[in-house]
Design brief:
With about 170 residues, this protein is mainly α. It folds into 2 domains: about 90 residues, Orthogonal Bundle (Rna Polymerase Sigma Factor, Chain: A), CATH 1.10.1740; about 80 residues, Orthogonal Bundle (Arc Repressor Mutant, subunit A). The chain is built from 8 helices and no strands. The longest helix is centred in the C-terminal third of the chain and has 30 residues. The termini are far apart.
């Protein structure tokens, strides 16, 4: 394969992964601007390190690994104090979908109560539909650890959602 053909194929494969990368980054960070920045940084790093990607291999786990490592680096790095913009407050509620929006908000709040390592596994397997092996490669852990974290994440998520329902029912009564 010529160099130009390889770059073209890599570019097409990267482009095909952007929506998945954005979805995962947004779920991970809960800030659209920061998520878009993380995706941009991921694609930039991937492009500059394209020689480490093996032709014909699935690019998605490779890109998610890069994103995970960038995210870990960002979490470790001290940040400036900022005030996040509440995007929900800026959107207009649509009739008929209000209940769905509330459920999504409750699910998002419940996800944020999970420990980061459980949330990451749950998002990769449930949202991004990665296999345990792919998620393990992305996170640099064993497939057994993926299964264990996923099980704990699901249990904790159920407990948090049940707790939220109980609170909602008490408020309604």
């Amino acid at each position: 394969m010529t160099s130009d053909a390889r770059l073209n194929e890599a570019g097409q494969r990267m482009t095909a992964c952007i929506s998945s990368l954005r979805r995962y980054a947004h779920a991970l960070l809960r800030d659209r601007t920061a998520a878009d920045d993380l995706v941009q940084d991921t694609l930039d790093r991937a492009w500059t390190r394209l020689t480490s990607w093996h032709d014909g291999a699935d690019m998605r786990p490779w890109l998610f690994s890069i994103m995970h490592n960038l995210h870990v680096d960002q979490v470790r790095r001290p940040r400036l104090a900022t005030v996040p913009v509440d995007e929900e407050a800026m959107t207009v509620a649509v009739r008929g979908m209000h209940h769905d929006n509330l459920e999504l908000r409750d699910l998002d709040a419940a996800l944020q109560r999970l420990p980061a390592e459980q949330r990451e596994v749950l998002l990769l397997v449930a949202l991004e539909e990665m296999s345990y092996a792919e998620a393990a490669d992305v996170l640099g852990i064993s497939p057994g650890n993926v299964a264990s974290r996923l099980c704990r994440a699901r249990e904790k998520l159920r407990a948090v959602l049940d707790e939220q329902k109980t609170i909602s029912l008490k408020v309604v009564r």
